[in-house]
Write a structure and sequence with these properties.
CATH topology: Immunoglobulin-like
Structural class: mainly beta
Pfam families: Ig_3
Subcellular location: Cell junction, Tight junction; Cell membrane
Family: Belongs to the immunoglobulin superfamily.
Shape: elongated
Number of helices: 0
CATH class: Mainly Beta
Keywords: Cell junction, Cell membrane, Disulfide bond, Immunoglobulin domain, Membrane, Signal, Tight junction, Transmembrane, Transmembrane helix
Distance between the termini: 37 Å
Number of strands: 9
Organism: Pitta sordida (Hooded pitta)
Length: 103
């Protein structure tokens, strides 16, 4: 079953240095969807523990299975327009509407 349009939860504003979680979920897709977050139209890289040395500026953890994008400490650099895309290999990937987060 192709995924439906996911529901994205993006706070409109966040305080610098706080923990912020963005979430993305769709429930119709079978097999379950994988989620990809985008910031300002650019796909965010999935961060793993081993990649932290190569990507020192990454302040988030993205979980493609649960659809969460977690910022441990947001900075002004994290301000931008976010959306996520759900795909499971069936039908076209579905995107939620773009939401702006101001830090």
């Amino acid at each position: 079953v192709a995924p439906t349009t996911p529901v994205c939860v993006v706070p409109s504003s966040a305080m610098t240095g706080t923990v912020v979680e963005l979430s993305c979920k769709e429930t119709e897709g079978s097999p379950p969807s994988q989620y990809q977050w985008y910031k300002n139209g650019v796909a965010l890289l999935e961060k793993t523990g081993t990649g932290s040395a190569r990507t020192p500026n990454v302040t988030y953890t993205m979980n493609k299975k649960s659809g969460t994008l977690l910022f441990n400490t947001v900075t002004r650099n994290d301000t931008g327009e976010y959306f996520c895309e759900a795909s499971n290999g069936i039908g076209l990937p579905q995107k939620c509407s773009v939401k702006r987060m101001q830090v």
